[in-house]
Amino acid sequence: MMMMAAWEPVGNTIFGQIWGKMGYEDHPDGEQCFHKIAVVTKYSGLLGLVASTFDVLMLSKTPGYVPTFLCYIKSTVPAAAAGATFAAVTCASTTVRGKDDKMNYFFGGASAGGIFGVVARSFRMGVPLAFFLGACATLYKDSKDNGWSFIPTNFKHEMGMIDSSSRYDFTLTKER
Q: What distance in Å separates the CA atoms of residue 62 and residue 165, rounded to the nearest whole number?
């Protein structure tokens, strides 16, 4: 009998699919909405945990367990809710409109920004953040469609100077 590690996905269960190796782009837009919502919620919730930890340790320095727990809830829940809202609105917009274009991502990003505005109870924060996240989501969709990336992955790391090309290598020249 073969034993599986506790962290590996178990069969075809929902828990195994969500916490396993499943990404947002595994299925076309407008299909498998629950899985897309689960994946985005997982990652945005983890980002909320990181932000909460930074807040607790560096900014607010909460004294005691209850204020620390409340600080974690204050940052993690809205981040996870914004991620779920982004995926749900994007998927619903793609299904309802029948088009797979950048407008769906703008709607999703704007609704995620609206979540942060509602949590902050601030119209002045929600509207600009909605436009900003909508624009970011539109850029993300454009990068998916046209094959470019925000963060290049083909770095060639070299030791030495900032511009370490061979034309500045004077190690084999005669001393002057």
A: 50
| Phi and psi, residue 98, nearest 5° | 75, 15
Residues 134/107, Cβ–Cβ less than 8 Å: yes
3-state secondary structure of 5: coil
| Residues 103, 61: Cα–Cα separation, whole Å | 41
- Nearest-angstrom CA–CA distance, 81 and 114: 11
The confidence band for 119, taking pLDDT boundaries of 50, 70 and 90, is very high
pTM, entire model: 0.75
Distance between CA 74 and CA 135 in Å, rounded? 25
Lookup: tokens for 59: 């900014």
Is 34 in contact with 28 (CB distance < 8 Å)?
no
Structure tokens of 136?
A: 């970011």
Rounded (10°) CA dihedral 106, 107, 109, 111: 160
Q: Give the ranges where the chain is alpha helix by DSSP (H).
A: 14-19, 33-54, 65-97, 102-120, 123-146
Q: Quick one: CA torsion of 140, 157, 23, 113, rounded to 10 degrees?
A: -40
pLDDT band, residue 50 (cuts 50/70/90): very high
| Separation between Cα atoms, residue 41 and residue 46, nearest integer Å | 8
